[in-house]
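yo, Lipid II:glycine glycyltransferase is done. seq:
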Amino acid sequence: MNMTSDIYFDPAYGKLYEEAEGGTLETFRFSTMLGTIEHSFIKRAIPEPIQGVTYYDIVTPYGYGGPLVTDIEKDTDVSELIAAFQAAFQRFCIDERIVTEFIRFHPLLGNGELFQTMYDAAYDRDTVGTNLKDYDDPFQAEFSKSARNDVRRALRNGVTYRVTENPKNLDTFKTFYYRTMMKNNATDYYFFSDRYFASCINDFGDHLLLVEAEYDGATIGAGLFFTWGKMIHWHLSGTDKTKLEFAPEYVLTYAITEWGKANGYDIIHHGGGRTNAPDDSLYQFKKKFGKHTRFPFYTAKKIWNPAVYEAICRQTATDSETNFFPPYAKKLIHKTYRRLEEAAAAGRLSEGGPRGGGAS
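structure:
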C-alpha cells in the first residue's frame, strides 16, 4: 500500500485533543536540501516546576503519529535526513524546556521502523485491518466463520444498516457512545465534549462517516469512522447493550466493509487490543474481522533532557525504573498523564467502546 499521510497528521486533528490532553498542539517542521520531516505533538506543562521554571512533556495526540518524512530528495539516504532531524529536534526540545516524549507510531505508515534507531522505538503489538483491496469479497475472505454467521443471522432477523457521509448531526451517536462509556466505567478522557464532536463535523465532515445499525425502526448501534486517502479508521462506537443478541457491532463492521469496498477503499483499520498480550480479548475480537491482515505497532519513550528528568523524579520521590512513562506522572496525579496508557491501548474499551484510535 502506498500511503504517505493520514488524518492523524493533520494539524486540525491534533487540535481536537488539546482540551482532552490538557496541552497545545505544536508542529516541528524540519526542512533541508535532503528533504522534509514534520512532527506534530501535544505539549503540556509538567505540574511540578523545578526552581520556579516550568517544563513540558510531549505526547502523540489520541491515535497515531510520530515524525513523518513528507519529502526526500532523489538518491538521498533517509538515515542522513533523520540524523539531521534528530540534531535539530534535540536543540528544539532543550530550547523549549521539553523533558520527555511519548510516541505512538502509525502502524500502517511504518514510521516506527523508520525512526527506530533515533527513538529506540519498541515493537508493542500488532493491530488488525480488513483488507478491501486484495479481495473481491472481503466479508468472505477476512471475516471469521463465526462473525459471518452472526452477521447473516442478524440480517435475517431484520437488522438493517445505514451509512451517512458527512453527517450533520451526531446526537444519536453521542447518546449510544456516552451510555457505552458509562457502562464500561470509562475514564473522563473518553467522554469527549460536545465541542469535540462539533469540531469533528466542522473540521472533518468530508472525512467523516456515521454508520448505524437498526432493528424494528430503532437504532441499536452506531460507529464513527474517519476516511483519508484509501484508508478507513474505526474511531468510536456505541451499542445498545439490551440488543446484543442482534449483533450490532458485527453489522456495523459488515456495513463499513461493504461500503468501503464499493467506494474504492483499500483498508479498514480496527486497531489492536487493550494490552499487548496475544490472548487479549479485544484483540481476539477484532481478529474476527481481519483474519489475514496485521500491522506492527511501535511506541517510543524518549528523554530529551536527562538532567531535568532526574531532578523531577527526585523532587517527586519517584523511582525512574518503572514501566509507567514518564514515571513522575503517577506521583503528580495529573489526569492528562494518567490517561497515557489507556489512550495508548486499544482505542476501544470493549466491543462497543472507543475503537481504532489509541495505541493499538
